[in-house]
């Protein structure tokens, strides 16, 4: 499947490693992942925001694998962190996991999640023919 990463010259370049938009060809299969928190199979939650981002993406990758997809099929990321201090660790993980051109992406700072130990939540949208 050919994706077209949209980076118009008439607007400012992205502030980080993401595309302003991604065009998906008609007929593609789509998988939308619910927001993933950093909960391990045994219910454990890492303390560090970077480790939480790793776990969130690993959980998302497991969901995509159920549909025969991988993180390479991700076209959009919506991510949420509970503090500006968590942005850099999250972005370091995201930038390592996704090749250029990167998916479309939004990162928001929120006041919290369902439990206070959660610092990162990630939603994924993936597409494959």
UniProtKB/TrEMBL annotation:
Q: What is this protein called?
A: Enamine deaminase RidA, house cleaning of reactive enamine intermediates, YjgF/YER057c/UK114 family
Q: Which domain of life is it from?
A: Bacteria
What InterPro entries does UniProt report for this protein, alphabetically? RutC-like_sf, YjgF/YER057c/UK114
Q: What is the lineage of its organism?
A: Bacteria, Pseudomonadati, Pseudomonadota, Alphaproteobacteria, Rhodobacterales
CDD domains (UniProt xref): YjgF_YER057c_UK114_family
Query: Which source organism does the UniProt entry give?
Result: Gemmobacter megaterium
């Amino acid at each position: 499947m050919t994706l077209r990463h949209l980076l118009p010259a008439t607007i400012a370049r992205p502030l980080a490693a993401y595309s302003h938009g991604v065009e998906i060809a008609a007929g593609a299969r789509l998988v939308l992942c619910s927001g993933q928190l950093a909960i391990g199979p045994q219910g454990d939650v890492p303390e560090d925001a970077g480790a939480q981002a790793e776990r969130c993406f690993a959980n998302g990758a497991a969901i995509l694998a159920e549909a025969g997809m991988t993180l390479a099929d991700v076209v959009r990321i919506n991510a949420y962190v509970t503090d500006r201090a968590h942005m850099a660790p999250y972005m370091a993980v995201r930038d390592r996991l996704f090749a250029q051109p990167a998916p479309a992406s939004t990162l928001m700072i929120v006041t919290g999640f369902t439990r206070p130990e959660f610092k990162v939540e990630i939603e994924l949208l993936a597409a494959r023919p």
